[in-house]
Write the structure tokens for this entry.
Amino acid sequence: MYSIIATDLDGTLLNSDHQVDPFTVETVRELEARGVRFIIATGRHYRDVVGIRNVLGIDAYLITSNGARIHAPDNERIYARDIAPAAVRRLAQPDLAGSERVIVNLFADDAWLIDRHAPELLAFHQDSGFDYDVMDLREHDGENIAKVLYIGEPDDLKVTAANLEREFGDSIYVTYSMPDCLEVMTSDVSKGRALQFVLDRLDIDTAHCVAFGDNMNDIDLLETAGRPFMMNNANPALIKRLPNVPRTGNNFEAGVAHQLRALFGMRDEVAAPARADE
């Protein structure tokens, strides 16, 4: 039987408002009470994901920045990979982004650094309250950076991606977490590698792992897990890339929670609270 669940957040476990709903919260808490372990695997910053984990109320391992950081349930950092400082300094240069419309972000250990104010992005962080710090990224020394994130329109990011390919080749790992989010990590980082690290630490075979994802940064997460599921709302490019991975419900309909209840033989509804006169 399955003993561990690995799940992405945006487009997967979180709803359309980028929050967790009560049905999902009750589902994961009941499974943890049965002894099932959880891993949250996301491109988000560690500090952001801690807040989401607190809302879920479970003792999950956290794979963040697409695998560049792993934290145990007690928040001990057990794995870290940084982009080389010289590469970070180059990645922060506006000409590499390709358009002044593209927002450049750096994920440091304890901070989200951004090159301009973008209050619209804070809607993605309602559960955690995580916020950014604005700075001239060209002045950053490049040390201790897990991820560089470019946010922009898909057509602009195509130019960014082409610039990255031309200048860095396969010396960095470049992926999309959403159509408007292009993410850069060091070349030996991915969610799948991080998942394998946690499974090895816990001495759990991949056959006993269920995984959920919806976008291109979930490819090797889904390839690593023994029982992968792709969201119905998944990126069409991911569907084309992994045609044999079964589809499940939509993130905006608590698709992960419904699939988990089916897998583990749980009632597919939240129990109604008892009436005061009962």
